[in-house]
């Protein structure tokens, strides 16, 4: 059993497009979206405990310890695997809450994969993704770790390999409520499904964008400013805005021009999650499977 703390990345994601096809009887929405990861995110540290206690040492303002998705993920895995061990967890949190770049879902997935390794559970990806879905619709894509075309509520995943450009991501200083956007009466809910794979160019819009920019002027401002340099889009339900560039230098140049009034970062798009690359390297070093 590994006693040294395990340090893992918890990457951001982008929704390169997001179409809402309709609302289901259970209140969830049928959608089609294209997920890609960024080589940028939070850093999480895990240390095994022998007493079965799960403790997240990093406080999240306004979120009780047991309500945090990280703790919920750890407890669910512990219960369903009947594991007697516990865990200490710390996180260097840099991804914004309510940003549409998957911070909470990514943290939950990193927790599941990290504990599966540390507790030596030998759960496979299917089992971990199924547990992840019970925590949130975006968790399975982070568990699986490959860029994907997603359908259903986001859980039916088909691996894809879009281009991997550099991105400028702007972070308006607002937290957008996903529930607020998906319940808004003006949200588009009747987009026709895409049949072609990969997603054809020109079908890359985000159906949430009109409502979010109406409700949040800061998001509209970021969209307009980045849109002067490249096609700018909303990711998820926001608030983050992103645009693609052919190389790091051109992305850095544009971000530098915008940071007088906006916060943001530059990151490389990646079709294989940096979390999975890290775990793969770890498994090669130790001779173990990571999922």
CATH architectural grouping of the largest domain: 2-Layer Sandwich
Mean model confidence by pLDDT: 93
Distance between the termini: 16 Å
CATH topology of the largest domain: Ribosomal Protein S5, domain 2
Major sheet description: 10 strands, mixed
The count of β-strands is: 10
Strand proportion, as a percent range, falls in 25-35%
Q: How many separate domains?
A: 2
Gyration radius over CA: 19 Å
Shape designation:
globular
Q: N-to-C SSE series?
A: EEEHEHHHEEEHHHEEHEH
Low-confidence stretches: none
What structural class do the secondary elements suggest? Answer: alpha+beta
The helicity comes to: 25-40%
**What would CATH call the class of the largest domain?**
Alpha Beta
Features:
Ribosomal Protein S5, domain 2; 10 strands; 26% strand; 10-stranded mixed sheet; single chain; 31% helix; globular; 2 domains; Alpha-Beta Plaits; alpha+beta; 291 residues; 9 helices
Description:
This protein has 291 residues and is α+β, with helices and mostly antiparallel strands. The protein has two domains: 6-161 and 273-286, Ribosomal Protein S5, domain 2; 166-270, 2-Layer Sandwich (Alpha-Beta Plaits), CATH 3.30.70.890. 31% of the residues lie in helices and 26% in strands. It has helices spanning 69-81, 103-118, 125-133, 139-144, 178-182, 209-215, 217-226, 248-258, 274-286; strands at 6-23, 29-49, 54-56, 86-92, 148-151, 156-159, 166-170, 233-234, 241-245, 264-270. Strands 1, 2, 3, 4, 5, 6, 7, 8, 9 and 10 form a ten-stranded mixed sheet that branches. Strand 8 and strand 9 (241-245) form a beta hairpin. Helix 1 packs parallel to helix 2.
């Amino acid at each position: 059993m590994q006693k040294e703390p395990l340090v893992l990345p918890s990457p951001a994601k982008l929704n390169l497009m997001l179409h809402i096809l309709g609302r289901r009887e259970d209140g969830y929405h049928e959608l089609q979206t294209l997920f890609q990861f960024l080589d940028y995110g939070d850093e999480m540290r895990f240390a095994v405990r022998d007493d079965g206690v799960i403790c997240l040492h990093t406080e999240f303002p306004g979120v009780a310890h047991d309500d945090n998705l990280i703790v919920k993920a750890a407890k669910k895995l512990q219960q369903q695997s009947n594991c007697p061990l516990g865990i200490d967890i710390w996180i260097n949190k840099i991804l914004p809450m309510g940003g549409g770049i998957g911070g909470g879902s990514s943290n939950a997935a990193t927790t599941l994969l990290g504990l599966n390794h540390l507790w030596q559970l030998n759960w496979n990806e299917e089992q971990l993704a199924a547990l992840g879905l019970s925590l949130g619709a975006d968790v399975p894509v982070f568990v699986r770790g490959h860029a994907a075309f997603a359908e259903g509520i986001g859980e039916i995943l088909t691996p894809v390999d879009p281009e991997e450009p550099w991105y400028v991501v702007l972070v308006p200083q607002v937290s957008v409520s996903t529930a607020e956007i998906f319940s808004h009466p003006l949200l588009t809910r009747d987009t026709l499904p895409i049949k072609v794979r990969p997603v054809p160019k020109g079908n890359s819009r985000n159906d949430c964008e009109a409502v979010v920019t109406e409700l949040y002027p800061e998001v509209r401002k970021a969209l307009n400013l980045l849109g002067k340099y490249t096609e700018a889009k909303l990711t998820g339900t926001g608030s983050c805005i992103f645009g693609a560039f052919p190389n790091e230098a051109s992305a850095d140049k544009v971000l530098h021009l915008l940071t007088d009034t906006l916060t943001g970062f530059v990151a490389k798009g990646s079709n294989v999650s940096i979390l999975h690359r890290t775990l793969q390297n770890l498994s090669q070093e130790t001779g173990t499977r990571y999922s």
